[in-house]
């Protein structure tokens, strides 16, 4: 009886490990795929589109949409924002961005909720004022 319990426990552990490995290889739905990550040093330009959205243009001509949870940018959307870098400046998921916005001395931390690389058709359909 003990032998069956040990074999069953080992089988369950192996299955759980393989499922966890398969999930860790997939990008989270709110993250960029690993081959689409970018570095903060690659940011060429950006535009604050709304209170919760920032569009970024990278040096290699990719457009990244950054969405925040709650208000981050306030009209007229001209306040500077800051991306702090600790360690690697590689951004692949929302947790990688330490974003704050507002006038100097009054910057407020922003919670990034989603990163999306825009397709060429999405960029073409974007109004000119939203393009970085």
- Strand content is 25-35%
Distance between the termini: 67 Å
What is the domain tally?
1
Helix and strand content put the structural class at alpha+beta
Total helical segments: 2
How much is the average pLDDT? 80
Give the neighbour order of strands across the main sheet: 2-3-4-9
Description:
The chain has one domain (34-130). It is 23% helix and 31% strand. The chain has helices at residues 2-25, 120-125; strands at 38-39, 43-50, 53-58, 63-68, 81-84, 90-91, 98-101, 108-110, 112-117. The strands form 3 sheets. A 4-stranded antiparallel sheet has the order 2-3-4-9, with no helix packed on it. It has a 3-stranded antiparallel sheet with strand order 5-7-8, with no helix packed on it. Strand 7 (98-101) and strand 8 (108-110) form a beta hairpin. The longest helix is centred in the N-terminal third of the chain and has 24 residues, at 2-25. The protein starts with a helix and ends in a 7-residue tail after the last helix. Mean pLDDT is 80; it is low at 1-25.
